[in-house]
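Chapter summary example.
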Amino acid sequence: MVVHVDEAAAHPDALARRMKDWLGVDPGQVTVPALPAHDPLNLVLSDQLVASCPRLLRDCERLYASCVPLVESDLPLAPRTARVALEAIEAHQHLVRAAKEAASSASQSRLAQERQSPPRDELATGPGDSELLLVQLHQVQEELEHYYLAYRDLEAGQGGTGKPATAKKTARVDIGTERDVPPHRELSLVLHDLLVDDRKVDRLHVRLVDHHGRSGLVLLQPRGTPAPLAVWEPTGSEGDLTFVVLIPTDDHGRQRLQRMGASDWRLVESVMLSIEHALCNGSVNPPSGRWINVARSLAQQLADMSMRFRFDRVACMGDPQAADAFVVTFGIVSFGSRRMAQLQLRWRPQAPEAGPAAVELLRPSDGEVPLPATWPVDTTGAWQAAWPLPLAGAASIELAAGWRSMSRTEREFLFGLLDALPAAAMAAAQQGNGATQGRAEALVAAAALPLRCAYRHFHGSRLRRIVQAARGRIPA
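The structure predicted for these 476 residues follows.
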């Protein structure tokens, strides 16, 4: 019998009754020892470790889903709010700064000692412990920055009230039938008046599923009704229904979620926020506490996938101001909590032997705050008309410094943007305008070069990239 330790600590009498019912032994009075307080930094790193290993993540979800509820009528303990997590991470920032200062001081002391001692073979001895510690602390600092920005965005959306930011936009949820037969458990739900940005869905049929301990969502399309997603590729059919199965821990489901455009991803996010809000805040009464855990697990998995560059459409046209350049327009762009109606860049493709291509982002025309937030300003304080990415036009060490001076969130956004350039080149080839006449294949090949160039400047030499890929720090 597996139970959740927080629920056992809150209801020791219910734990004793469950043990008697399941095991046939009366344990008497059960005392659950107090749990130690967890360091938020340890929680962040452990969550990243679990998320990076699909097998470990699947085992954790199976274990979590197999917990026996002790009190059927009570909801599980509420998780930490964004405000509490944000305050905890801010409280531990001084620990990281103190450790970095200590490592830097140790490194300077070692260098001073080495100046007074005979030179050593650096390749034979390898870097000292202080340098290794400093590198590790820089990585931890980047991870803390990533989670800090995510919690700050969530806190800004809540407005300091402690209530979910989507409370006013969540749909009304009705519970249908439940299929509680392992290993495929399902709970039917109907969402009413779902608002997704400027779109309203009057009625949407979905299913919350638990397949082999893996949380997922099924979107249904009854015959004669519009498809919920703009790109509707049914996984299967059931009578008059066609459906799409979305399980983040499944390879096919994760690929389907990663390929989603901005609007479809926004709809999936809104559906899960409405379901989680309804189940966890008591708006509806699920048949069992299992579905609350399933909804929370799935919502967290989707939140971990939100930091991805997504767009609904792309167009690539010749630049009227430069014969050798293209203006690429991405429509309906999203990255994490940021959304833009349009994002434009100017791209000057180059052949591989001619050197790196030039890519510069163009300032939004509607006065919207551009992405990323470090967009340069002119002498008057206004946003510059264009921002050239650090790909060419300077020494390699200066370009590398430009990438490393960015925050991790900004780099991931720009890497995702450059990764979408081949899609823009294919769109230009399909349009067949005069600027792409006879150079479609060359354009698609050249579109992959800016991302490689960015990786090379940020991650260093090819040997270093191979070592970092082997350690799991960058994609292989």
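To summarize the output: Residues 73-84, 119-127, 156-168 have pLDDT under 50 and may be disordered.
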